[in-house]
Specification:
This protein has about 350 residues and is an alpha/beta fold. It is about 45% helix and about 10% strand. The strands form three sheets. It has a five-stranded parallel beta sheet with strand order 2-1-3-4-5, with helices on both faces. Strand 6, helix 11 and strand 7 form a beta-alpha-beta unit. Helix 3 packs across helix 5. The longest helix is centred in the first third of the chain and has 16 residues.
């Protein structure tokens, strides 16, 4: 029987009430799965399937669940272009990043991609590079018809000075702004916890291998470090500044390694901490006996450093899910307010 006739027969069985639990459960079909096939599997009309696909409120929860189970069993994927015509939305989100070369940005992008996929949204990614023209990035995303956009980390500073081109925006790590929703990690609290841990293990003060100027996250981590030292009445050394890369951690960390008074270093991210570990080893300084080192992020390889790196863990998965949920809420017209910052966790390992 031709494929078109198969679908008509399925629709006829549904209309005649002939479908049953046993007939709906069967092997997953090959080829394109139609709404009629989903309707037959779920024991509902094609119109009901259409309402579920378009997120209509006119479907009771039990029926919606049955239809969604049938979609999952059959591998049904709504046609994105057809849905865009019906709903006026492309179901595509933009992501704007300064660069994807840093591990933190890559980890957050992965989390955003997984959360978007779970909600049926595609991604369009724009990187800014050295010139950082975020206004042009917004224009490009607007021309691509994205429904909303998520701005990552370093690019957040540029978002304050750019026209968002009518896009629904969620910005990661930025000061509050009425034009968009702000989310992020409590970097200052994480930095205070890192500094406190290094002091509690006996250091007279803590040096800081800081992130680049202009980065909101770097500034907040530096603020937390300063606040903890100030609260204890301790000397605040001049920070040494890198650019998030392991190379800059090695280069700038050499200054710290050459200073015999340095007992403990809080590095603003794990990549710079890695470079610092090498710089200290080059000078023959033992870790943590001579110098304790603690990073930030808890990247996937942090536990494999030599020695394993103590660090502050960011929950990138939770941050990505939150970003996608909130931008979709803005796109779909739901009320959205800036949520509480996510609290990072101290991870103690052999380096500190």
């Amino acid at each position: 029987m031709p494929k078109h006739d198969d679908e008509l027969e399925e629709m006829r069985r549904v209309a005649a009430g002939e479908s049953s639990a046993s007939s709906r459960r069967g092997p997953r079909p090959t080829g394109r799965v139609s709404m009629a096939m989903v309707a037959a599997r779920a024991g509902v009309s094609g119109q009901t399937v259409s309402r579920v696909v378009n997120d209509s409120p006119r479907v009771d929860p039990a029926t919606r669940e049955r239809v969604e189970e049938a979609m999952a069993e059959l591998g049904y994927r709504p046609h994105r272009a057809a849905r865009a015509l019906r709903t006026g939305r492309s179901e595509t989100l933009g992501v704007v990043a300064q660069t994807l070369a840093t591990v933190g940005n890559s980890a957050l992008l992965q989390a955003v991609a997984e959360a978007a996929e779970a909600r049926g949204y595609a991604l369009a990614v724009v990187t800014l590079g050295a010139e950082g023209r975020i206004g042009e990035a917004f224009d490009r995303l607007h021309d691509q018809g994205v429904d909303g956009a998520i701005v990552l980390n370093e690019a957040s500073a540029l978002a304050r000075d750019a026209d968002p081109a009518g896009l629904a925006l969620v910005v990661v790590d930025a000061p509050a702004d009425p034009r968009f929703t702000v989310i992020g990690t409590d970097h200052a609290a994480g930095a205070r916890a890192a500094t406190a841990h290094l002091l509690d293990r006996g250091a007279s003060t803590v040096h800081h291998l800081a992130g680049p100027e202009g980065s909101f996250a770097a500034a907040e981590r530096e603020r937390g470090w300063r606040e903890e030292l100030t609260a204890r009445g301790l000397r605040i050394p001049d920070p040494v500044r890198g650019d998030w890369s392991a190379g800059s951690g090695h280069d700038r960390g050499g200054v710290l390694a050459a200073d015999a008074s340095v007992e403990a270093v809080f590095a603003a991210n794990d990549q710079m901490a890695l470079g610092l570990l090498r710089a200290l080893a080059d000078r023959g300084r033992r870790i943590p006996d001579d110098v304790a080192v603690l990073g930030f992020d808890d990247i996937a390889d942090a536990a494999e450093f030599r020695p394993p790196l103590a660090t502050i863990r960011q929950d990138f998965a939770a941050l990505g899910e939150q970003a996608v949920r909130l931008v979709v809420d803005r796109v779909e017209g739901r009320d959205v307010s800036d949520p509480a910052l996510l609290t990072p966790a101290l991870i103690v390992r052999a380096s500190a």
